[in-house]
Amino acid sequence: MEFVAFIGEDKESWGQIKGIMNRIDSDKVIIVKDKKVSGFPTDARTDIVNVDASKSLLDLKEEIMKILKVKLSGDFEVALSLASGNGKEHMALISALLSIPVGIRLVAFTKKGIEWIN
Fold first, then answer.
1. Domain encompassing residue 17
2. What is the pTM of this model?
């Protein structure tokens, strides 16, 4: 299962995403981020997807969907974190993933480690 997350300008939430990246059993990490955002730490299995978050919601969804269709390996579901970014970015990402289509399993990093939100 691949791990997908949106990285927004809210740098204080990046630790949540990095915590999941460091602990999740996944061969591939796909970080979707606004093209203006920089400085997020990555590793060898990280694939960065730059998008224009200033676009309208539907245009942003289409941009993300076109890119992720190529990047995702064909699994039936992805692990998804919504810890970073804003509502518009989250809606565009969720809608893009469901339109590909892939299932979504929400994941969070807590004091207990990785927890799946079912």
1. 2-117
2. 0.93
